[in-house]
Amino acid sequence: MKEKLVIIKVGGKVVEEEATLNQLLNDFAAIQGNKILVHGGGRSATKIASLLGIESQMVNGRRITDAETLKVVTMVYGGLVNKNIVAGLQARGVNALGLTGADMNAIRSVKRPVKDVDYGFVGDVEQVNVSILGDLIKKGVVPVMAPLTHDGNGNMLNTNADTIAGETAKALADIFDVTLVYCFEKRGVLKDENDDNSVIPQITRAEFDAYVAQGVIQGGMIPKLENSFSAINAGVSQVVITLSSAINKNEGTKIIK
Amino acid sequence: MKEKLVIIKVGGKVVEEEATLNQLLNDFAAIQGNKILVHGGGRSATKIASLLGIESQMVNGRRITDAETLKVVTMVYGGLVNKNIVAGLQARGVNALGLTGADMNAIRSVKRPVKDVDYGFVGDVEQVNVSILGDLIKKGVVPVMAPLTHDGNGNMLNTNADTIAGETAKALADIFDVTLVYCFEKRGVLKDENDDNSVIPQITRAEFDAYVAQGVIQGGMIPKLENSFSAINAGVSQVVITLSSAINKNEGTKIIK
What we know:
- 2 copies of one chain form a homodimer.
- Chain A is α/β, with parallel strands linked by helices and 257 residues long.
- Chain A has a single domain, classed as Carbamate kinase (3-Layer(aba) Sandwich).
- Chain A is built from 8 helices and 14 strands.
- Chain A has an 8-stranded mixed sheet, sandwiched between helices. In chain A, strands 3-4 form a two-stranded antiparallel ribbon. In chain A, strands 6-7 form a two-stranded antiparallel sheet.
- In chain A, a hairpin with a 2-residue loop joins strand 3 and strand 4.
- In chain A, helix 3 crosses helix 4 and helix 6 packs parallel to helix 8.
- The first copy, chain A, is globular, with a radius of gyration of 18 Å.
- The interface between A and B is large, with 37 and 37 residues.
């Protein structure tokens, strides 16, 4: 029987403000057993880039990463945000280790090919190093993963944090019983986006398709759920979409195979 | 018999310029066996701080680290410089892992007490985690250590890279036969600072004291040699002061017990 592993993905907003970060670190520290934290940091990156006179250009919600922007995200995600979380978890007795994909070759990616849009130094994940991550986790180490990978040729690449979490969950499902928790600013997938109490408690692929056809689920929620079903289909035991303040509560929307 | 371990400390200038960085990474990759790279990054920190409108204040060659400066050095040392080196080493087949003192509690420090000068968020090393570093190294992982530690209470602390290298060397001398190499911009300790060919090939404590009394060795060289003798006295097998371009050559000044 596989050991359990919980992978929590939190967005930039939660980890960039002291009050919400402290709450998250307390909640995350309280999770028993094997765990991984994957974080964003986009708001800080935009702010620091702006102070450095670098304009942040977004297409379809994704950051265009030119050479100067790559430096900024490497600093902000891999340094400022990641180390702040690691130090905070260590203070709470969690043996955190900050990782980018370059560290111990944890995640190798390939620079996204230019099609309609040139995203620049953005990585599409090719391989998650199951052996190295598995060894660390089984020793009680808690990886704190920044949304950065490398191409194996010496270049860091900016990589979406949802993707890091999803690909890591899929790869580690070979050796762990994985629960993947996507945190965001809503209580779950809502039937009515204006009613926070309209959380859909669980959803199958067929139900998802029906909700999309009806227009109940739309916009940015669609790729998030597509990612979730992809994870479930690749062997992840459970995917949950919930509030970051609810990672220890049995709330949110469960994605069911 | 203890396994050998080589610890190389390089300053910011070497790792911040592409040509010298590539040369260093090639030379470091060529070192056989167990190894650690400790790096600085002060020039980049000063440059980024300046772009962000934060003035860099130095006292006795040390950076006064206020809260904003701490953010800058955490970004620059832990993110930009560290990950660039890690990705570069991975491309050369070295299984590099970037670490600050917070990661896996590798190095815990205490905020320097305020005496004549308030250095701010600067850490004096209290404990190097020999067990965790030893385990990694024996598995073939190559730590790449940024000049940052943590206080165990959630705070990162800025910590001199020479100190990181020296304290790590001393602590790991318990389980390894350690050679510590301090790289700097001269070929070694010089008898005549204007003559690069006047390298003192080896130096004992008694000779050092005599050179200081004669005024041959002075200025910033004195604390560097004091650190070196401290390492030798604490069980480090060999300390070498040399050029970063000479880490694979039998050059520079050897510090002898």
